[in-house]
């Protein structure tokens, strides 16, 4: 969060060169966060199952897995479109719908295309967690070992 706020502040005070230089650190940080998030989710699910004897920890893996997929795709697209500020900032700052409505009085096309996909993906992740279909159970049993 501190990095995001710092990057936003650099753009706000028109230090775009610094923003771009530090952005490569952010790209590296985001790249590490995705596999780290997946690994943490697996380790915690194993801990919850083995140490805390909780049931359903494996089914919950759909939530952090989807979060890492959505985060990774948004960051990858933001890096790809780094020379297009209108797209870049909206992929980094997904709560920008409110900002667009307040400032521009309309929702940007990035949100009109991305948010339905994110909502469907999150709905599928919640379905997999709550209903734990047999195909998801087979996948999580392999992951959990």
Report on the structure:
The chain is an all-alpha fold. It has one domain (2-144). Helices cover 79% and strands 0% of the residues. It has seven helices and no strands. Helix 3 (62-80) packs antiparallel against helix 4 (85-92) and helix 3 (62-80) packs antiparallel against helix 6.
Tell the overall outline.
Answer: elongated
Q: What structural class should be given to the helix and strand makeup?
A: mainly alpha
Q: How many distinct helices?
A: 7
Helix content: over 70%
Instruction: Give the overall average pLDDT.
Output: 94
Strand residues, percent: under 5%
Provide the succession of SSEs: HHHHHHH
- End-to-end C-alpha gap: 34 Å
The number of domains: 1
Radius of gyration: 18 Å
Counted beta strands: 0
Largest sheet: none
- List low-confidence stretches: none
Layout: helices, strands, pairs:
Elements: H1 2-12, H2 16-50, H3 62-80, H4 85-92, H5 96-103, H6 109-131, H7 134-144
Helix pairs in contact: 1-2, 2-3, 3-4, 3-6
Could you write a compact summary of the structure shown?
By secondary structure, this protein is mainly α. It is built from 7 helices and no strands.
